[in-house]
Write a structure and sequence with these properties.
Length: about 210
């Protein structure tokens, strides 16, 4: 009741995308949230599926601080897998459980604008060029608000557009956080097989304040 009419952004990824039981449970829960009057917005990852598709294509990739170095060949596969196979699969799954979903990419309607991301490797002051890996510079919430006010559940592939005309692969956690902020979401939920944030004592922290973060 506290969150009726409010937007909940859910980042969907990790092991929950690989198990039939967890996939179905996720779809049921999202449809339930919508039926209870909340407005779920799903932002999905797809790292394992991308890795598998690259392997089948004989394309090798490397990671720098958890980010996949993305040249044009890799980006073509990312768009095909994230914007196609994975996105459509999630939409179908939600609809199979009685919901109405619509698949979107970050390029649709200028939803996600991005610039190339630069990261600095530990022990070095030099920034590494990750290719077509993007950092979000702007979110156009109007694209999503049109669907949120209806019965549709938006399902978003985190691919952004640059002013240079290129597509950019955006980390799904970061894309979800930017979208949640732009929509003024009541909650940002990250579904992942990472346990959580651990304190200096190694114990999981159930709650973290802004100064602690």
């Amino acid at each position: 009741k506290r969150f009726a009419g409010r937007t909940i952004v859910i980042k969907y990824g990790g092991a929950a995308m690989l198990s039939d039981e967890l996939r179905n449970g996720f779809a049921e829960d999202v449809v339930l949230l919508k039926s209870l009057g909340l407005n779920p917005v799903v932002v999905h990852g797809g790292g394992p599926q991308i890795g598998e598709a690259l392997k089948r294509s004989g394309i090798e990739t490397r990671f720098v601080r958890g980010m996949r170095v993305t040249d044009k060949a890799v980006m073509d596969v990312v768009e095909m897998v994230l914007g196609g196979t994975v996105n459509m699969g999630i939409v179908s799954m939600i609809q199979g459980h009685g919901g109405q979903a619509i698949g979107l990419g970050g390029k649709d309607g200028g939803l996600l604008e991005a610039v190339p991301m630069k990261v600095v490797v530990e022990g070095s002051n030099e920034a590494v060029d990750l290719g077509q890996v993007g950092e979000v510079t702007r979110v156009n919430p109007g694209v999503l608000e049109k669907f949120i006010s209806t019965d549709y559940i938006p399902v978003i592939a985190p691919i952004g557009a640059g002013s240079d005309g290129l597509s950019y692969n955006i980390n799904a956690d970061l894309a979800a956080s930017h979208i949640a902020r732009a929509l003024g979401a009541a909650k940002l939920m990250l579904l992942t097989n990472v346990d959580g944030i651990r304190g200096s004592d190694g114990e999981l922290s159930p709650r973290v304040s802004t100064p602690q973060a």
